[in-house]
Amino acid sequence: MKNYNMKKNVVSVFVILVFVAMFSGCSEGLPSDFPKTLTNFTIELLYEKKPVEGASVSLISEDTNKRYLVTGFTASNGITSLETLINKFSKPGVPAGQYKVIISHVPKTSIELTQHEVMTLSNDVLEKREEEINKERAKLPHPIPENWNNLQTTPIKITVPKIGGKITIEITDQKTYEQ
Q1: Furthest-apart CA atoms within the chain: distance in Å
Q2: Do 103 and 157 contact (CB within 8 A), yes or no?
């Protein structure tokens, strides 16, 4: 009987520890320096008043002691869903603070390769298709100024408030940006 009670107590303690871990945030396995508070913040990207789909948007903290990255891609409506990353850990949202913004975009053609094609076509055929795709891309507009895709040269600086929010970035042919 004693042995049964001991097993029952061990199981009870284990169950309690699992619940404590689940509700204390330990189960997420996030690094200790992961931002504690994330806010809902979006960026809308427009070119000639139209949404830019498929652009990569990255926010780099102006505080050099921060080692996280905030990133997302614009959807068909030109709006990002941003998430914060440290190593392999990520969560939706953005920590409040000052950021430099890096934006890049590779226009899609009507002849893009599918994942199946990449996996099954020979290297020779893939190289020819890539050449065709790159020729098509060269004909398409590249609305984002080149300097916006570089941490050292990007003119875009934003403040993410603690209450979250949204900003719209209107791309112009200029290499400057004004909020």
Answers
A1: 82
A2: no
pLDDT of 71 > 70? The answer is yes
Which candidate, 130, 99, 92, 96, places its Cα nearest to that of 113?
130
Q: List alpha helices for the chain, DSSP H.
A: 2-24, 115-120, 123-139
What tokens were used for 82?
Answer: 């941003």
Residue type, 53: E
Count, residues in the chain: 179
| Angle subtended at Cα 79 by Cα 75 and Cα 85, rounded to the nearest 5 degrees | 85
Predicted TM-score of the model (pTM): 0.67
Distance CA 34, CA 68 (A): 8
Q: Which residue has the tokens 């609305």?
A: 143
Q: Which of 103, 108, 105 has its CA nearest to residue 167?
A: 103
The values of phi and psi at residue 15, to 5°, are -60, -45
Give the containing element (helix H, strand E) for 118.
helix 115-120
Give which of 75, 84, 85 is closest to 55, Cα–Cα.
Answer: 75
Q: What's the pLDDT tens digit per position in 136-155?
A: 877 877 678 888 888 898 88
